[in-house]
Amino acid sequence: MATLAVTNSFSAGTTIVAADMNENFDDVEAFVNTTPGVVQKDIVDAKGDLIAATAADAVSRLAVGSNTYVLTADSTEATGLKWAAPTTGDITGLTAGDLVDITAASGPVPTVNVDLSEAATSTSDADGDYFLVTDAAAAQYKLTKANIALSGMNNDSGWTANVGDITGVTAGTNISGGGTSGAVTVNLAIDAAVDFGSDGSGVDVSFHSATAGDLMLWDASEEKLTITGTDGQTALDVADGNVTITDTLTVSGGLVAPLAINAQTGTTYTFVLADAGKFVSSSNGSAQTFTVPPNSSVAYAVGTQIIVQNIGSANCTLAQGSGVTINSKDSAKEIDGQFAAATLIKTATDAWSLIGALA
């Protein structure tokens, strides 16, 4: 480290001339400003700024870095240093008995991925290779290569399980969980086709409700779906959409099927698809004409029925749309009188039968 040396020294009682003092002042000025030089405090501007060398006998200010950043060497920087986010990596080369202690006083809990490809083997354990964790109360938590099993887990043991996705499960691998109290819950998000069993070799599938004994069961051996609900409660509710039953429908407990009503008050009306199976009333005081549209416009299923009744004082006549044939006794198509009724039944693509009180 350089030291300051001045040309002249003075003793008590010595007369000092200006030239001698100026020589000493020149020595001090050269020491401060040139060689070796003195670092001035105004080189730093903020709390945390550092003074760093940029070359031999040259210094510069390194501004403070962001919170949680660490100082690291970087030869490409002017000062050879920079502030950077800390890096993370794998924990490797642990020796048996080493303790990995992960804590998080604030912020998220760190995630540890454990590769069990080199796990120890226990000849006394039927499961084979395992990874074993033991807490202070001697409760054991075992992760095996054959399955994932939690043993000895007590709800009051102070352990908190943070779990994520289960990935890469091989066919035939068991995923099991349990404990001395409580149970392990597995939530599945399924966004692809799912098979239960295989073609010709099915399995029973049950969906349980929040009420004991209530469930929906697909019985593979009986080849049927059984819904067991609570008496008086709705067990199957189709909020929207059609229900199609190709074969026989058997109802043993009574059928509640209210007939929907379409009340028409105008003098003309053409049936729509929604009228299938409905009761359509005619209540205008003048004569009314209801038209049956062709199949090309409204494709009713063969066997569709539509009930029509005169509510008003004038009669309603059933008219044939383009290409439609309505077959009735004596070709009558007018409903005879107030409160008289007739039923249209589709018998073919564009053929209907009309039966009832006709004039």
Describe what this molecule looks like in 3D.
The chain is mainly beta and 359 residues long. Among the domains are: 18-84, no CATH class; 118-157 and 175-187, no CATH class; 202-235, no CATH class; 261-356, Jelly Rolls (Sandwich). It has one helix at residues 18-33, and strands spanning 50-55, 58-62, 70-73, 81-84, 130-134, 140-144, 147-148, 174-175, 205-208, 215-219, 224-228, 261-264, 268-270, 279-282, 288-292, 305-310, 316-320, 325-327, 341-348, 351-356. The protein is elongated. The model is unreliable at 115-128, 145-163 and 177-182 (pLDDT under 50).
Produce the secondary structure layout:
Layout: H1 18-33, E1 50-55, E2 58-62, E3 70-73, E4 81-84, E5 130-134, E6 140-144, E7 147-148, E8 174-175, E9 205-208, E10 215-219, E11 224-228, E12 261-264, E13 268-270, E14 279-282, E15 288-292, E16 305-310, E17 316-320, E18 325-327, E19 341-348, E20 351-356
Parallel strand pairs: 7-8, 12-14, 13-15, 14-16, 15-17, 18-20
Antiparallel strand pairs: 1-2, 3-4, 5-6, 9-10, 10-11, 16-19, 19-20
In summary, what is this structure?
This protein has one helix at residues 18-33; strands at residues 50-55, 58-62, 70-73, 81-84, 130-134, 140-144, 147-148, 174-175, 205-208, 215-219, 224-228, 261-264, 268-270, 279-282, 288-292, 305-310, 316-320, 325-327, 341-348, 351-356. With 359 residues, the protein is mainly beta.
